[in-house]
Structure prediction request, 111 residues.
Amino acid sequence: MIEQIDTKEIFSLVDNASGNFAFAHESFAQIAALFEAIAASLPDYSVGHRLAKLGEDVCDDRTSTFESMRDEYNGHVERYLPHFYGAEGRALVACQTRRTSSAEQSSRGDA
Prediction:
């Protein structure tokens, strides 16, 4: 017997995945800011300063990686959900777009 596909469950999983990408991106950006503050408080070329700069660089790289992954994932969502789920899919895509835009504004201090 074929199991019925639950569209609400799929929408919930898609929404959670998108949120996790955004959360990871934001978390690395915040940790990078912490490392930046630590580096600024230490003498240049001290071991602590160099370690803080290394932490900042790693976080910047991860921020960029998760931002790219999020954007690619959201692009797939925008492409496929409306195709397979019609109006419900378009509604989810619109909701995600508003939330992503709001989160980006908040992380920049615009909100």
Residues 17-108 form one domain. The mean pLDDT is 80. DSSP finds two helices and no strands in the chain.
